[in-house]
Amino acid sequence: MRISVVGCGYLGAVHAAGMASLGHDVTGVDVDPAKVALLARGEAPFHEPGLPELLREQVDAGRLRFTTDPSEAADAEVHFIAVGTPQLPDADAADLRFVDAAIEALARHIAPGALVVGKSTVPVGTARRLLDRIRLAQPSASLAWNPEFLREGHAVRDTLAPDRVVYGVVAGERGERDAAILDGLYAGVLAGGMPRMVMDLETSELVKASANAFLATKISFINAMAEVCEATGGDVTMLADAIGFDARIGRRFLNSGLGFGGGCLPKDIRAFQARVEELGSGKSLRFLDEVDKINLRRRKRIARMTRELAGGTIAGRRVAVLGLAFKPDSDDVRDSPALGVASQLRAVGATVRAYDPQANANARRLAPDLDYRGSVLDAVEGAEVVVVATEWSEFRELDPASPELLAAVAHARVVDARNCLDRDAWRAAGWAYRAPGRPAEPDAVATSTSAGALLPALAFAG
Ligand code: NAD
User: Fold this and answer.
1) Which CATH number fits the domain 212-460, given the four candidates 3.40.50.720, 3.40.50.150, 3.10.180.10, 3.80.10.10?
2) Nearest-CA neighbor of 257 among 44, 460, 4?
3) C-beta 259 within 6 A of ligand 1
4) What are 407-423's pLDDT values in tens digits?
5) pTM score of the predicted model
6) Cα-Cα-Cα-Cα dihedral of 351, 353, 354, 355, to 10°?
7) Which fold has domain 2-194?
8) Bridge partner residues of 91 (DSSP)
9) Nearest Cα residue to atom 20 of ligand 1
């Protein structure tokens, strides 16, 4: 099929390449000429494992092109909307300006009978409003909502093999036809027996919002337990392992640490609350306000823990922050807890040397006053405390007994803000070790047969 993908960021670029790899003829449209120029050469404008190879392959095969001119996508049968829906600068609600602009541009070019498919995360009720706008311009056109659940760092896999596919469609025959069009588009994805659900537009919008609300709540739940452990001397990683064996609870997304961030969960739980408040049902989601507050408290807690480990004062001390991206395998620093901690430490007078395997350049744009370094050893040189703030495998696999590492730091002190290091190995190598939700001093009787505490980072949802 001939399709367009409007908005080629973290979601759209991967979706465009993924659709081309399924055999469709894809035109990616974005307003950012620099991004379009890179994509058109088959180069990824951000770090996402597997994306450069997929882009190049599809561009070279002639199935995938990129443009800033929406009229070049006028003959598409299906138009995906994948533009950003950030938080408004001065309110909790979503800023729908980009979605509205994308729909206005499409309305000028859309062909008779075409289908617009929303993938951006939008407040409930948006799809129906956009449908009215599209039908005003082209009465035979239709609109469906197909929320996206990809996780940055796993986006290629999640696009081609998602956990489920959800279609929100209009009622009646046209809705059935729209679902059939989407089935045709996703035939290669659905072939393996992937769960596929067809529902009304509003429910499909709510599926995405509630999935993110649930994930955020699960993370803040375990971080609330970390606060309780810190107050009582308990160990949150033991606690998570023990409750996680209960299949009703599950161990995934139960890693206590620095909390969630990125371009999705924080703004999505705020936009969800704002929309439901607008609809007169605000108290149903008031708990999300607490989820947000617990999450933001983690950043302050880690900054405080760093100060404690440095001996009570941080001004003038040299701190190394390892990790700036909001999660590993991504260069995305939007609302990044790691960058937040680095900036807080800098604001109270620490000299912060920071290093991220992929996100230094993006971080520098948001926080130019940090001292960015190109390697772990460079960042930890002379450090009085090392903070591991994003659980990249490069950091998880560091050898705490490495003579170079021990020689580089001024003091062997580490804050494991993500609970991703092997505490015993670091302590055995002579490091003073602190981690959220775990006692400052090890408890000799604490043992677990589960590898839960050392599970590789469980990726945040989009
Ligand atoms: P992004 O900021 O990386 O990308 C958005 C892109 O849209 C940018 O390249 C921007 O230049 C472009 N754009 C803006 N206005 C445009 C217009 N009028 N026409 C064409 N292009 C335009 O954002 P993202 O992370 O890709 O997120 C996009 C949407 O997908 C959001 O609603 C987000 O909540 C949702 N989402 C994101 C993820 C994720 O992991 N990033 C996962 C699921 C859902």
Assistant:
1) 3.40.50.720
2) 460
3) no
4) 999 999 999 999 999 99
5) 0.94
6) -170
7) Rossmann fold (3.40.50)
8) none
9) 30
